[in-house]
Amino acid sequence: MPELPEPPALPENPGPPRTPAFSADPEPLYSPGPDAREGTQLGRFLDWLAAERGLRFDDWAALHAWSVSDLAGFWSALWEFFQIKAAKPYDEVVSGREMPGAVWFRGALLNYAEHMFGEPEDAGRVAVLGRSQTRPDVTLTFGELREQVARARAGLRRLGVGRGDRVVAYLPNIPETLVAFLATASLGAVWASCAPEFGAPGVIDRFGQVEPTVLLVVDGYRYGERHVDRRGEVAALREGLPTVRHVVHVPYGGNAVPDAVTWDDLLDGDPGPLEFEHVPFDHPLFVLFTSGTTGKPKAIVHGHGGILIEHFKNGGLSWDLKPGDRMLWFSTTAWMLWNALVSALLLRASIVMLDGDPAYPDIAGQWRTAGETGATLVGVSPAYLMTCRKQGVRPAEVADLSRLNQLGVAGSPLPVEGYHWVHEQFGGRVLLNVGCGGTDLCSAIIQGSPLQPVWAGEISGPCLGVDAKAYDPDGNVVVGELGELVITAPMPSMPVGFWGDEDGSRYRAAYFEDYPGVWRHGDWVRFLPTGSAIITGRSDATLNRGGVRLGTAEFYRVVEELPEIDDSLIVHLEDRDGGLGELLLFVRPADGVDLDDALRDRLRLALRTALSPRHVPDRIIAVASVPRNRTGKKVEVPVKRILLGEDPDKVASRESLTDPSSLDAFVALAGDRA
To answer: Which stretches are tagged as biased composition: Pro residues (predicted)?
Structure first.
């Protein structure tokens, strides 16, 4: 091996010191030391760039600037570094910087699934650890996974599945789902999945758009102590999806599904060697669906190549996944984090597929599972962390977390107190890596890495290859103040398009209408001079109180700190005459607590003291449940539209909510206001 040039040294604490305008903490909670890059994927990539491309960077800012200015150089470097296999090489890396319309790796023929099984020496390495409340544990090696995928592929071919056909799954987060997905991908067919806690109407709204030919189902599952029978929903799906020619039953709940191919039958017979249909870079791999809070869910199409290279980058350079690591991130099969989880296999890390109630038998259950499986990367939601904090959970005392080196957080903004709690529990040994991204890109936009500092309340910065900025309403870049989160250069994992959107008009309207040629993501962000960022909530749910914009996350941070409050939701109804409008705070009191005038006064005082008089709500109203979609996000915008008099069935899909009845109180209130 040739002697490597002197590697680039990235600073431990880039940028100017913090000021109280941004953070009250003078020092970061985590700062990479001089040896932080040793043994990391990012360190190896930097060494590779120096040796193979003669590129050296003085600091993180320079590395990121190169990654978004030299698109062809950065993405081709990833292609070579991660050794992407192509049956036919590409003719050019990218056609230009136009959005939408940039074409990536034109001419290449490849297959995502071909990269998931490793080399012969990986066959005995553990790939999947299935943990379920419905059945005993399941473990698959890479070799066993390859064999099952080959069998499932042969079974799907017997059912007539070929390139471009759609295979959909009403399955939980179990190894069979992974096997079916990879078998589908290997054929060049298109995958889509929904978790079985979805009701039939919501699933039909999703799957019906792609006109599937094969439907995989379970008959039921356990959620904590409760058995859930889904045979009625399966029957409704069969009735509501007329293009389905075959139903495959994965036995899971203990009951039969009539007139279905069993999983064992699908995998029966000699499959022969596992082969792969090589497809163009942008050939559809899977369809992800938005939460469906306005009309039918958008069917977002992601391609083989875009997901492949983006997940290599995100899993390797941001999450630092490599052989020997184990990733546990609780997710249902309806959330893009499921797709990100299974892509950890690209890097030969093991994955833990967890199905059931993540808070069973108590809130510390996920920590125990992490300890039992030896997880090195654990992903959780901000709500989970804050609940653990509130209940006094001490993770290191309930489980052996000695292998844990990174804690991923995504789904909604994490309050400052959550950062401090994680640091109190784990110190500097565990990297707190908070991210913000979404279904639209099936990855992160801003996030951390082992070579970036972490400040309380802040996300470390834009990911490599993501030219993320904050825009004001006129399309000017702003720093130090709130703005729209935008992306100003194309990325390979930007969607191929929306299913059925033949002329691309809905796709363009969704992301490029407000700032032509620039991706508007829909989050409200403040970038700091050092490059880190603070997400304050969805920009379309951001409150505009007399011309001053207020992020929703800061309300929740204050309100939900009170022990009397379990959950909350804030909505601002604008005054068409230009006044302050009406600021409404909805709270779910803790068990045994009544929302009386004294508690309302404490809430108002807390908001006035911690934030400002502008943050004091006009009314505080108790509700039995705060509406959240199935990824845990509060659905502020549909509630606002309901309160403004719009038809609830047109602005919100109850099937997309964890508690469909959670909208009832707002519908009733809208009726009273009429």
So the answer is: 1-19
